[in-house]
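Per reviewer request, we include the raw input and output of the structure prediction for the construct analysed in the revised manuscript.
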Amino acid sequence: MTKNRVVTDRLHLWLMLILTFSTGVIDAVGYLGLDRVFTGNMTGNVVLLGMAFTGGADLPILRPALALVFFMVGAALAGRVLRKGPEGWSGRTSSTFLTVTVGLTALAVYVALVDVAADELLGSITTSVLATVMGVQAATAKRLKVAEITTVVVTSTITGLASDSRLAGGKSPFWARRASAIALIMAGAVVGALTLRVDLWLGIAVSALLSAVVTLLGHLRHRQDVSGGHTENVGEAALR
C-alpha cells in the first residue's frame, strides 16, 4: 500500500467519524425537538413503530414511518448516483456529500425562519427531509467502505468491540475506531440536546457545517490523489 493510500484511508476514517458525531446531533434534534423521531438511526424508528402499533405510551407513528420511508428514498437515490462511479471517493461522492450539505443548510435556514415545531404538517415535512438527507449521507459513507464505521448506527460497532475484545479472547481489532464512533455519536447527541436550548435550527446548522468540512476535505484529498496518480503514470510511461 502506497503512502498516499495510507494517508487517504486515514483521512476517510476521520471524516466518517465526524459524520458519526453529526448523526448524533441530528438524532438528538429530531427526537427531542421534533416529536420523538430519529432521522439518522432507523433502528430506533423501527422499534418506536413496533411499540406505537400496540398503543404504547402515546408514541408517534406518522413521523417515524415517514422518516423510515424517506431515509430509504435518500439512500436509494444516492446508491443510483454512486453505482456508476468507481470505488472509494470520486467526483460523484463529492456531489452526494455536497447535496447533504446544501440540504442541511437550506433546512437550517428554513427552520430558523419558520416555527416548524408548532405545526404538525411542517414538522413532518422537516423530519422527512432530514431523513432523506441522512439516507444520502449513509449510502455515500457505505460506498467508502471505511471498516466498522457506518456513521448512522453503532449497535454493530458495540457488538464488535465487546465480542472481539481481549476479555472475550479476541485481539481487539479496530478497537480505537470502534470506541471513537461510540463516543462521538454520544457526544453528538449531547451537543444536539444543548443546541435545543438556543433553538431548533442550531443543531441542523452544526451538522451542515460538519458536512461541509467533510465534503471539502474529502474532495481536496480526492483531487490530490487523482493528480498524484496521473503524475505517477506519466513518470512510468517515460521510463518505458
